[in-house]
TrEMBL record:
The keyword Protein biosynthesis applies. Homodimer. Keywords: Aminoacyl-tRNA synthetase, ATP-binding, Cytoplasm, Ligase, Nucleotide-binding, Protein biosynthesis. It holds the Pfam family tRNA-synt_1b. This is Tryptophan--tRNA ligase. One of its GO terms (biological process) is tryptophanyl-tRNA aminoacylation. It comes from Hydrogenoanaerobacterium saccharovorans. It is an enzyme of class 6 (ligase). Its EC number is 6.1.1.2.
Length: 328
C-alpha cells in the first residue's frame, strides 16, 4: 500500500476551500492508502496566535477532521507538536535547503505582505517544516490545494538532493491535486483564494456556518454585471460558484448551465447556498457530537501521536545515521 500524508493549520475554522480542496479527498483516500493526517499547530505559530484561541482551534480542527470523515481507526490522525520528530527533521533539512530556494516561495511573499510587522524566521522556513512533515512518513502522495504546489516541488527537490548526497533515504512524493475544487475563491473577491483567516467573514464559508448564514453569504457573493450562468473566462465569481456547486452535487457545468438558463443570478446563488448548506449538515452534526465528548477526542489524538511517533522515528534514525550523528 502506498502512503499519504497531509495537514491543515488550526488558524481558524476550516473553510469550504479547505474542505473541497483537501479534506474531502483525505476521506476518499483512506480506503486505498495508508494515511497520516495532521493538525499542523507548529505551522500555525508562524503567524501571531492568541494562545487560548490556538489551543481551542487545535482541538476544534482535530474534531472537524474526524467530523468530515477521517476515521482514526483507518488513518493515523494526530497533532504535529505531539510528535517531536517533526522539529528534529526540520532542523536537519533546514541545513540542506538554500536561502535562495526559500526566497522564491510565493506563500512567504504573500504572507509577509499581509503581516508586515511579523516577518519572522519561522515564516521564512515554514516550507522546510512542511518538507519534514511529508518525508518523515515516506509519503508517496500529498493531497493539497493548488496553493501548496510550489511547496511540494520544494519537497521533491530537497528529498532528491538528500538522497543523492547521503544515499537513498526518502521516498519522493507527488502532489495529489483535485481536478475540481483545487482553488476555491473568496466570495467577496473572486480573484483571491478563500482563506480561513480572511478579515472579511463574507469572503469565506466556514464549514460550521449555520445553514441560513451560508445561504446569506452566497446571496451576497460578488459576481458580474451580465446575466448568464455560464463558465467563461472573465466571469470569476460565477465560475467559482459553478465550481462549488459542481463539486458538491457532482453535476457537470453543462448541466448547471442548462438548469439555470434564463434564470437570474439571485436564484442561482440561493441554489448554490442551499446545496452547500445541505452538504455540510452532517459535518456540523458530527462536530457537535464529537466536541461533547472531549475524552474520546483525547484518546484518539493520543493514539495517533503514538502511531505517528513510531513510524516517523524509523525515518529519523535512518537520517541521523546517514548524516553521521553519533548514536546515544
Ligand atoms: N481556497 C482554497 N481552495 C482549495 N484548497 C484550499 N486550501 C486552502 N485554501 C484553499 C487547502 O487546504 C489545505 C489546508 O490549508 P492550510 O490550513 O494548511 O493553509 P492555507 O493553505 O494557508 O489555508 P488558508 O485557509 O488560506 O489558511 P490561512 O488563512 O491561515 O492562511 C491545504 O491543502 C490547502 O492547499
Amino acid at each position: 500500500k502506498q502512503t499519504i500524508f497531509s495537514g491543515i493549520q488550526p488558524t481558524g475554522i476550516m473553510t469550504l476551500g479547505n474542505y473541497l480542496g483537501a479534506i474531502k479527498n483525505w476521506v476518499e483516500l483512506q480506503n486505498t492508502y495508508n494515511c497520516a493526517y495532521c493538525i499542523v499547530n507548529m505551522h500555525a505559530i508562524t503567524v501571531k496566535q492568541d494562545p487560548k484561541a490556538l489551543k481551542q482551534h487545535t482541538l476544534e480542527a482535530y474534531a472537524l477532521m474526524l467530523a468530515c470523515g477521517v476515521d482514526p481507526e483507518k488513518s493515523v490522525a494526530f497533532i504535529q507538536s505531539h510528535v517531536t520528530t517533526h522539529a528534529e527533521l526540520n532542523w536537519v533539512l533546514a541545513c540542506s535547503t538554500q536561502f535562495g530556494e526559500l526566497s522564491r516561495m510565493t506563500q512567504f511573499k504573500d504572507k509577509s505582505k499581509r503581516y508586515p510587522d511579523n516577518i519572522n524566521a519561522g515564516l521564512f522556513t515554514y516550507p522546510v517544516l512542511m518538507v519534514a512533515d511529508i518525508l518523515l512518513y515516506q509519503s508517496n502522495l500529498v493531497p493539497v490545494g493548488i496553493d501548496q504546489k510550489q511547496h511540494l516541488e520544494l519537497t521533491r527537490d530537497v528529498a532528491i538532493r538528500f538522497n543523492n548526497t547521503y544515499g537513498n533515504t526518502f521516498t519522493i512524493p507527488e502532489p495529489y491535486i483535485p481536478k475540481q475544487g483545487a482553488k476555491i475563491m473568496s466570495l467577496a473577491d473572486p480573484t483571491k483564494k478563500m482563506s480561513k483567516s480572511d478579515d472579511n467573514v463574507n469572503g469565506f464559508i466556514s464549514i460550521l456556518d449555520k445553514p441560513e448564514t451560508i445561504v446569506k453569504k452566497f446571496k451576497r457573493a460578488v459576481t458580474d454585471s451580465d446575466m448568464e450562468v455560464a463558465y467563461r473566462e472573465g466571469k470569476d465569481g460565477i465560475n467559482n460558484l459553478m465550481t462549488i456547486l459542481s463539486t458538491v452535487t457532482g453535476d457537470s457545468f453543462e448541466t448547471i448551465e442548462r438548469d439555470f438558463a434564463g434564470k437570474g443570478y439571485g436564484d442561482f446563488k440561493t441554489a448554490v447556498g442551499e446545496a452547500v448548506a445541505e452538504h455540510l449538515r452532517p459535518v456540523r452534526e458530527n462536530f457537535d457530537r464529537l466536541m461533547a465528548d472531549k475524552s474520546y477526542l483525547e484518546s484518539c489524538y493520543k493514539r495517533g501521536a503514538e502511531q505517528a511517533e513510531k513510524i516517523s522515528r524509523r525515518t529519523m534514525e535512518k537520517v541521523y545515521k546517514k548524516i553521521g550523528f553519533l548514536p546515544r
